[in-house]
Amino acid sequence: MFRSRELSPVELLEAVIARTEAVNGGINALTETLFEEALPAARQAAIRYARGRDLTPLLGLPVATKEKHGIKGRTLSQGLVARKDEYAVEDHPVVERIRRAGGIIHARTTTPEYSCATVTHSPLWGVTRNPWNRRYSPGGSSGGAGAALAAGLAPLATASDIAGSTRLPASFTGTVGFKAPYGRIPGLAPLSADHYRGDGPMARTVADTALLANVMAGRHLGDHTSLADGPALTVESASVAGMRIALCIRLGNYPVAPDVEANTRGVAAALRDAGAVVEEIELPWTVEATSRTMFTHFGYLLGPAMEDETAGSEELLAPYTRRFMADARRAAEENRFVDGVRAETRLQAELATAMEGFDALLCPASAVAALDADGMYLDGIDANGEQLEHYWQGHMTAPFNIANRCPVLAVPSGMADCGIPTGVQIVGHPFDDATVFTVGAAVEAVLPWAGRRPELLTLA
Fold first, then answer.
1. pLDDT at 456
2. φ and ψ at residue 199, rounded to 5 degrees
3. Where is the Amidase domain positioned along the sequence (predicted)?
4. Rounded to whole angstroms, how far apart are CA atoms 451 and 348?
5. Averaged pLDDT for residues 91-111
6. Per-residue confidence at 443, pLDDT binned at 50, 70, 90?
7. Is residue 100 within 8 Å of residue 216, measured between CB atoms?
8. What does the pLDDT read at residue 238?
9. Which of 66, 68, 115, 226 is catalytic?
10. Three-state SS letters, the chain
């Protein structure tokens, strides 16, 4: 529409600004807006379209960035009260690439403290709510991104994922999120060396997610783990005819809610109708072992990093942050680093064996259908009548951070009984990004989603 002059980048941005002013007060998805900077950039983009040259992939498109993706000269608090006056000294690599591609960063999105929770609230920014039903959370840690996309505050957003922080908000908000394989999208040192982590895109469609992923990917001098450019992602062909897809409902013993299971099976049936061979499999995993493996890893990397960053200001932290650090510390005390590595490689081998002969794996993103917007879950979570020790155990994303060379695309699967969306994960073989986008585009084609919008319901 920009190219045909049916729509101007200025008109689009003005519509996004009006939408933000109308509805963000009810969901609290943004930490700040950058409209004064964004409008001149939109005018410049309109001039470039009028001239018909220098047209870059994101030219004129508004992009909301997660607050942790620092913008030089802007605050970089990661939701911590003690760091609310700290500023980024450089652009994060994904910010740098979005701007180079012509994207206009018009807003920054909320997270829980240090992006360490699957709900999005903090003492600094308050509670972020799900636009589909404001009683519930949009998930975390990229909850502000998911809420902003679902509510129409942005067409594209950045996210990050160390245990599900992209895929869970996508699942809970009816949007699309991509956990790229480790190294595909560059991060910032020193945690860029953490092989669980990864930055990535979120959007409302599979094609838009691929567009942003292509911009974000590729080698970066600041991240020695980053990979050379791979083939550009495209969703022009969404055919799954003849593909073999493994369906795994419980990933071992996750207590999956009936509505989540029904929606996941609905996606599998739709893919079958589209010509894929879908075969149900089992995996020998347990919630307890996955949680222990994950927190052992956190106990040697993320946990100590968080303790260093928050030393002297512990009393200002949210209870969920203190709980996370304590759990990570305890896991490191109980398990050696090599114990964690053994557990990780065992899980990876089990996944490789299960996926042999299949093109992709399909499973739910979360065993529980919803989280309360302001929930702390310090005593665990009730999952389908089973009390789990830790609320992280209610989500099914962490195994694929442990097996983090696998690309994973989260796409909508339907509506939960409580009135918010559910989602599935499409898991590919290591570094086979193209396949998960092909399957994701097929799901989108057979189960159209883009026309569904939240009504911004009031609190129940």
1. 65
2. -90, 155
3. 11-436
4. 38
5. 98
6. very high
7. no
8. 80
9. 66
10. CCCCCCCCHHHHHHHHHHHHHHHHHHHCCEEEECHHHHHHHHHHHHHHHHHCCCCCCCCCCEEEEECCCCCCCCECCCCCHHHCCCECCCCCHHHHHHHHCCCEEEEEECCCHHHCCCCCEECCCEECCECCECCECCCCCCHHHHHHHHHCCCCEEEEECCCCCCHHHHHHHCCEEEECCCCCCCCCCCHHHCCCCCEEEEECCHHHHHHHHHHHCCCECCECCCCCCCCCCCCCCCCCCCCEEEECCCCCCCCCCHHHHHHHHHHHHHHHHCCCEEEECCCCCCHHHHHHHHHHHHHHCHHHHHHHHHCCCHHHCCHHHHHHHHHHHHHHHHCCHHHHHHHHHHHHHHHHHHHCCCCEEEEECECCCCCECCCCCCCCEEECCEEECCHHHHECCCHHHHCCCCCEEEEEEEECCCCCEEEEEEEECCCCHHHHHHHHHHHHHHCCCCCCCCCCCCCC
Average pLDDT of the residues of the chain: 96
Residue-wise pLDDT for 64-78, tens only, equals 999 999 999 999 999
Identify the CA nearest to 13 among candidates 28, 24, 2.
2
Indicate the CATH number of 9-446 among 3.90.1300.10, 3.30.360.10, 3.40.630.30, 2.60.34.10.
Answer: 3.90.1300.10
- pLDDT tens readout for residues 196-223: 999 999 999 999 999 999 999 999 999 9
CA distance 397 to 178: 12
Candidates 141, 142, 160, 366; catalytic one: 141
Question: Encoding tokens for residue 125?
Answer: 């920014």
Angle, helices 9-27 vs 143-151, to 10°: value is: 120
| Whole-number Å distance between alpha carbons of 180 and 49 | 31
Which residue type sits at 338? Answer: V
Is 165 among the catalytic positions? yes
Q: What are phi and psi of 258, to 5 degrees?
A: -55, -40
- Looking at the predicted structure, is the pLDDT value of residue 459 above 50? no
Q: Is the pLDDT of residue 232 over 90?
A: no
84 catalytic per annotation:
no
How far apart are the C-alpha atoms of 363 and 423, rounded to whole Å? 9
Gyration radius of the chain's alpha carbons: 20
Q: β-pairing, 277-280 with 244-247?
A: parallel
pTM of the model: 0.97
Active site residue 4: no
Chain-centre distance for alpha carbon 94: 14
* pLDDT digit string, tens, across residues 113-140: 999 999 999 999 999 999 999 999 999 9
d(CA 280, CA 295): 29
